[in-house]
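Holo prediction. Input below; ligand is zinc ion.
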Amino acid sequence: MTCPCGQALVGFDDTFIPTVRKHLTDNHPGHEYDDDQILMFASSVSDDYVRQQADG
Ligand SMILES: [Zn+2]
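Structure of the complex:
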C-alpha cells in the first residue's frame, strides 16, 4: 500500500501489518488502525515485487 504521506509500505502477509503499524507509530502518532482497516487500505502486489523492495 502507499501511505497517505507518500511512503510505500510493502511486506508479506505475516509481516505487512507489523510493518504498517511501525510506520504509523513512528510517523503518525495518534493514528491507530486495526488489522482489518490496514488490510482494507492495502492492495496486493506480487511476491516478487515485495522481495525486490525488501532486498532494497
Ligand atoms: Zn505514512
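Residues 3, 5, 7, 23, 27-28 surround zinc ion (CB under 6 Å). That is the main takeaway for now.
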